[in-house]
Amino acid sequence: MKYDFDAVIDRRNTRSYKWDQSEKLFGDKDIMPLWVADMDFESPPAVKEAMLRRLEQGVYGYSVSSEPYKEAITSWFKRRHDWSIQPQWITDSPGIVTSLSLAVELYSEPGGEVIIQSPVYYPFYDVINMNGRKVAKNPLILQNGRYEMDYDQLEGLMKGGARLLLLCSPHNPGGRVWEREELLKLGELCLAYGVTVISDEIHCDMALPGHTHYPFAALSEELANITVTTLAATKTFNLPGLQTSFIVASNPELKRKFDMRLKTLSLHMAHYFAPEAVQAAYNEGEEWLDELMVYISGNAEYAISYLSQHLPQVKVMQPQATYLLWLDCRGLNLDIAGLKNLMFKEAKVAFSEGSVFGSEGEGYLRINLACPRSTLQEALKRFTQAANEHLMK
Predict the structure, then answer these.
(1) Please, which residues have CB within 8 angstroms of residue 328's CB and are 6 or more apart in sequence?
(2) In 3-state terms, what secondary structure has residue 142?
(3) Confidence at residue 355, expressed as pLDDT on a 0 to 100 scale
(4) Which of 39, 47, 327, 391 has its CA 20 to 30 A from that of 337?
(5) 306, 385 in Cβ contact below 8 A?
(6) CA atoms of 354 and 189, how far apart (whole Å)
(7) Mean pLDDT of the residues in the chain
(8) Distance of alpha carbon 178 from alpha carbon 170, whole angstroms
(9) How do beta strands 164-168 and 113-116 pair?
(10) Is 24 exposed, middle or buried (0-12, 13-18, 19+ CB in 10 A)?
(11) Which residues contact residue 103 at a Cβ distance below 8 angstroms, ignoring those fewer than 6 apart?
């Protein structure tokens, strides 16, 4: 491989959200953190070069976006996802969660119900509750070793008055890539009941070999008209610290509302460094991403095999996308506190504890696979040894 994903980069003492908070969050500075979803890999070289050129200008003044930046976005999504995005559909936002929160505020009523498909990325709950709305759960069904949508229960929520859906596609933490037919069936219900869809597709570029991501808004003009898609290069190319994302909305009224609220909050200015980084990533980072996904797939295969051999009580959901692995640890017979104690005190590793993704995630753990193989090996060794010691007691 051209890029060395085995290289171990010491991120301690770099103000790293993942690496510099272990003692504060988990009680031990020596805990191995495989929880928050950023990567322990360098971003593509072209990104670093673009940032350095920008840095060397020496005057860090107010900035605007550029046409080449939007062209890089539209070209990427046409090339990688067969989605023809018009530049005027794009609006920059400081982050995906910011966009989700604004969408809940703008496209639902105070006290209204917002549908989520649990277990799901935990900020989905926050942006609903903190905006004074109610969470309407459409729990996913575990079937044939993967999550599937419960359309009957979903239709009941829509009949009951829920008019906004937060869709996680690909799904986090389950790693599902929704099939075209599944999304079309979902879309039929949304069109029938007048439901607006906020589709979080930040993991869209991270479908594993053999799986294809379908942008929800690309399925039909009718679905595009009821959809705001939240996107970013940050997950794909390991740029989350740049605090940059964008939405795509072909419906002028949905976009106008979003743009107006961004300006009201003065969140509409361009980041000084981010557009250059995103442009370089989309224009010159494709080879890096292709190699990364081969490496991530290898990490997933290694983890599944290792756990099957050394801790068969834990069942792993085969991921179809993302660099996240969802583990069913209910066979360890531990409650939430017990799982945390096993990780933080006994194994000295930090995975994401499943209940934060909703009550349906109790007894599960989420592992971040976006690290050198040696880091993953050590973390799994620590965890399986501690778990087996627990089982022998």
Answers:
(1) 314, 315, 316, 317, 363, 364
(2) strand
(3) 98
(4) 39
(5) no
(6) 29
(7) 98
(8) 7
(9) parallel
(10) exposed
(11) 164, 166, 198, 228, 230, 258
Is there a contact between 102 and 149 (Cβ–Cβ < 8 Å)? no
Q: What is the pLDDT of residues 234-254, one digit of tens each?
A: 999 999 999 999 999 999 999
Q: What is the reported pTM?
A: 0.97
User: Beta strand pairing status for 134-137 and 113-116?
Assistant: parallel
* Residue 124: Cβ-neighbour burial (10 angstroms; 0-12, 13-18, 19+): buried
Of 242, 176, 204, 4, whose CA–CA distance to 85 is shortest? 204
Question: Distance (Å, rounded) from C-alpha 304 to C-alpha 147?
Answer: 18
Tokens of 31: 């805990």
Burial of 110 (0-12, 13-18, 19+ CB in 10 A): exposed
Of the candidates 97, 72, 124, the one whose C-alpha atom is nearest the C-alpha of residue 356 is: 124
pLDDT computed for residue 393 by the predictor: 83
SS3 category, 302: helix
- Reading the block at residue 386, the tokens are 């501690």
Distance (Å, rounded) from C-alpha 358 to C-alpha 335? Answer: 14
Asked whether the beta carbons of 224 and 250 are under 8 A apart, the reply is yes
Among all chains, which residue has been given the structure tokens 């301690």? 12
- Rounded-to-integer distance, Cα 278 and Cα 184, Å: 30
162 and 143 Cβ atoms separated by less than 8 Å: no
Listed as ranges, residues in the chain with pLDDT below 50 are none
Pairwise CA distance, residues 168 & 124, whole Å: 9
pLDDT attached to residue 205: 98
CB–CB of 388/343 below 8 Å?
no
Q: For residue 138, which of 116, 112, 114 has the smallest C-alpha distance?
A: 116
| pLDDT of the residue at 1 | 87
Residue with tokens 């539209």: 74
Q: How many CA atoms lie within 13 A of 302 on its CB side?
A: 21
Q: What are phi and psi of 228, to 5 degrees?
A: -115, 120
Longest distance between any two alpha carbons in the chain, whole Å: 63
Write the CB contacts of 147 (distance below 8 Å, at least 6 apart in sequence): 140, 141, 171, 174, 176, 317
